[in-house]
UniProtKB/TrEMBL annotation:
It comes from the Archaea. It comes from Halapricum salinum. One of its GO terms (molecular function) is hydrolase activity. It holds the Pfam family YdjM. This is Metal-dependent hydrolase. Keywords: Hydrolase, Membrane, Transmembrane, Transmembrane helix. InterPro entries: YdjM-like. The chain crosses the membrane at residues 57-78.
């Protein structure tokens, strides 16, 4: 398999994982799964511009900051509270997972350009954690689907 094919396969799995985690959090916490899914993918909008710009408009640049995540969440919050909360928690989940990769995430840009990295001995995109995320998310979605309507309503924010 070529390096490009391997990279594209990795990227597809990473994006699907971010989407699933955002969807699950949006569904389980706020009953807004699609907002969570969009939030879980939003920071990676920068993948559309690979090689076109320089720092901070690169992958894991400005879109992977608390500033942009907060601004994007505020825009969605202005539309509807639970929609914004689901989007925000999806966005935050992506930043947290990406913080476990060696490249890290520049959470505090533009205050500092340092990328923050938490070494857990593995990354959030390694096979083991990826499988664990999928099993956990699919289990939570199955559980949520089997809750009665009154139980779902009592979980609403």
């Amino acid at each position: 398999m070529s390096d490009l094919a391997a990279y594209l396969g990795f990227l597809a799995i990473a994006l699907a994982t971010h989407a699933l985690i955002g969807y699950t959090l949006g569904q389980f916490l706020f009953d807004r799964p699609w907002a969570g899914l969009v939030g879980g993918l939003a920071a990676d909008i920068d993948l559309l511009f690979l090689g076109m710009f320089e720092w901070p408009f690169i992958h894991r640049g400005i879109t992977h900051t608390l500033l942009i995540g907060g601004l994007a969440t505020a825009v969605v919050l202005a539309r509807e509270r639970r929609l914004g909360l689901a989007f925000g928690v999806g966005y935050a989940s992506q930043l947290l997972i990406d913080t476990t990769t060696p490249k890290g995430v520049p959470h505090l840009y533009p205050l500092v350009e340092t990328s923050f990295y938490v070494d857990l001995g593995t990354t959030g995109h390694s096979p083991g954690p990826t499988v664990a995320f999928w099993v956990l998310c699919l289990g939570l979605l199955w559980y949520y689907d089997h809750l009665s309507i009154p139980d779902r309503l009592s979980r609403s924010v």
